[in-house]
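Input record (one chain):
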Amino acid sequence: MSSTDEISQTAVPDHFHHAETAALTHMIADMLERLTSHNDQIPLSSSTLTRFHSRAPPGISILDYLRRIVKYASVERVCLLILLVYIDRVCERNRSFTISSLTVHRFIITGVTVACKALCDSFLQNSMYAKVGGISTKELNVLEVEFLTLIGWDLTAGAERLQDYYRNLVRQHPGFRMVPHAEVVTAAILAETAATGRTNLGDWTGTSKYVEAAEFAENQVEQQRQTQLHQQMQERQHKALLQQLQLEQHQQRELANQMQSKQRTQLLHQLDLQSAKVVAEIPTADASVPFYGGFSYLNSLESAQRELDTRMNA
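The corresponding structure, as predicted from the sequence alone:
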């Protein structure tokens, strides 16, 4: 995509619960227009007729019909986006059902009715939805029961799945591109402030329990990511500290061994000095010096005995 194409495109937030309702309505209507144009080429038979089929296509376009519903029924963005999920679920469970120009309008007003009841804190009565949708209350009641049967009462979807639908919706539309939410909000606030002289953030804050749940889920994911990063950092710090302790213990052992070796060497040296000193202090042997005070006496006794023996033998 060239830079010129990006400039001509309208920037929308990268998360569906921050998207502007008007932009979301436009993208959904465009997708439904393309879907109905394709399915209108499929031959219609009596076996594929449902309560959602009209005799002729209504005289109001899909975009104007969605805008009318959003305006007078105060439909939140999540109830619009989940219509795409409902279409896939109904068509998956009922292979013969198609969204065409004969069924799309009744499907939209019925889908919005059950979505608001399932996902929003507050919703209107069926008589009001029927008046906005251009059908009778009795017909809407019948369509609601038929819708719940076709979809198997599966009326909710996770935030991640809705985000996938939103992401694909933006990618398939040539007039929009996703950017970080902060950029869109800043641009919108500046534009509104410049035009009106005041700031209104009403369209950028969600009020339904589903939007709050989606924001809570994102916060939980971010907290889990931060917790994992903190745990990984603690593990690395613990590993580094353990390695440092092992290194210090090794160094201490080496130092202790060196000290012991040095002490042994010094001790041996001292012993050698003491031995040399003792040897040096030992007197030189002399025959004239009596040992134990008796060696000279014994020598004199032996001399006297020899002299006596000589005299006796003379």
